[in-house]
Amino acid sequence: MPPKSFKFRLQTILEHKQDMEDKEKEKLAKVLAKLEQAKAQLAQLEQTRIRTRAEMKEKQKKGGVNIDELKIYNAFLKKLDKDIIQMNMVIEQIKLEEKMQRNALLKAAQERQAFEKIKEKQKEAFNLELEEYDRKLIDELATIKFARKAMEENADREAREAGEGDEEEEEEE
């Protein structure tokens, strides 16, 4: 009886490992999106600082800045500097989170790949078993065919010999 079709016994575990890897990919995508958003906010803060400084210098050149406005500009620039420093710290934290998430994804991918290898090896073993079964079946059929041909040749020879024997008996009479 031929082996049944290939069925991987650990398929549910393999599917679970694939799901886990997919979830880790989604988490990484969210972290990367968060990182891009933080970088965009940092760029916006830096642009605001550049514009504010340029605006302050322009007003100073024209001589239209009083001390209160200068204090406001300086306070705003100090706040922007603090915000930029804070955003850089946030970005570094997100980069650390990204690194950890990449490691988690790598681990999940390795676990899935281990089960994929097991599946491939079992499939190869199944295919070898199927080939062996086919080879034995072909050998068996060839043996049967050979035996049948030998029996037919033997029967023909016996029939001829019996026929020759009948002719000899008729000649003797």
What is this structure's SSE topology?
Blueprint: H1 11-62, H2 67-172
Describe the structure.
- By secondary structure, this protein is mainly alpha-helical.
- The protein has a single domain, classed as Orthogonal Bundle (Helix Hairpins), CATH 1.10.287.
- It is built from two helices and no strands.
- It has helices spanning about 10-60, 65-170.
Task: Give keywords.
Helix Hairpins, 91% helix, rod-shaped
Compact overview of the structure:
The protein has two helices and no strands. It is an all-alpha fold. The chain has one domain: Helix Hairpins, CATH 1.10.287.
Order of helices and strands: HH
Tell me the number of structural domains: 1
What is the terminal-to-terminal distance? 59 Å
CATH architecture: Orthogonal Bundle
Strand content: under 5%
How many helices?
2
Supply the CATH class: Mainly Alpha
| Helix/sheet category | mainly alpha
Q: What's the main sheet like?
A: none
Computed CA radius of gyration, to the nearest angstrom: 43 Å
- The stretches of 5 or more residues where confidence is low (pLDDT under 50) are none
